[in-house]
Amino acid sequence: MIPRELTTKMLSLAKLFPAVTLTGPRQSGKSTLVQEAFPDYRYLSLEDEDLRETALDDPRAFLDRYDSHVILDEVQRTPALFSYLQGAIDRRNEPGQYILSGSQNFLLMQRISQSLAGRVAVLHLLPLSYAELATAHRTPRTIDDFLFDGGYPRPLTMGIDPADFFPNYVKTYIDRDVRAELGVKKVSEFNTFLTICATRVGEVLNVTSLANDCDISTDTARDWLSILEASFIVFRLHPYHRNYGKRLIKAPKLYFYDTGLAANLLGMESSEQLLTSQYRGNLYENAIAVEIIKQYQAIGREPKLFYWRDSNQKEIDFIIEKGGQPKYAIEVKSSSTYRPKAFENLEDLAPVMGLDPEHRFVIYGGNETFETRHGQVIGIDNVNELVG
User: Whole-model pTM?
Assistant: First the structure.
């Protein structure tokens, strides 16, 4: 197993809360992580039909038997169990009673908010970060390899070709989560919708245009976007909310939680094809956004991450806010060659936000880290400098 940065935070929260919930996309390594982190706990997977039926048939007896130091995996499959879990937790009132994990965030969080609010700490495990791969001495040969391969543990550790892994991943996700658990009936149309979303990576989201391209209603497009977000497939990055006297674009940008999946949906068959792809810059920008999110989530925090674009088309790729104020302004360039022009928008807009060169970053495709009079230049392997 490649060590996960989230482990330390998860162990510390288990000493404070009766239950810890770990959620994230399918195949992100949740089951492996909870078993490795809590080796003395009883592991129960509610994917097992017999076990699931036992839990649903007599939930009180089930929880009387498994009332402490238990991992309940894919727990969203047994929604009726949550109200009984509340009683079991309150009866013992001890930290670390249950570790709950699941892949369907919408269903899982719905049950938690109804029954376990205040009793459970919630963490998210996304696919492997660049930092985790580097720590495990599995750094990709090139940035294009990282964009193409993505971060899902199984293909990286088992040597599965992404061209084989991702089509099967999508089929399983759509059959199990979209069709079976969320009741989407237009499966073929949903698959098309997912593919077209990949062509919008890093772009300002126009839901009406997206709906028209898929021949569905805008309401359906919004519903399906919510499903993709709840499943940790895509996320929306919102524009910065302070206008500083500027007219700002109000629509969010669309990104994928894994660039490997996005690249596969775009028809990429090898990392070499990314070199000449029109999507290369957008995918690298996507990778940086997710790397920032992963770094924050590894310490149990959600980053205040935004983008800026005004009516004059002046843009800053990312703004990280702390304490209600902008902390860092970031421009992303996929080229491995640094050019001072990369700071052009930062020099124009960052002073308006009160950000001096020390808080202006260009993240490029190279490996060197250095300071300039315009700001700091780093690669993806130094994104951790932006956390904390």
Answer: 0.94
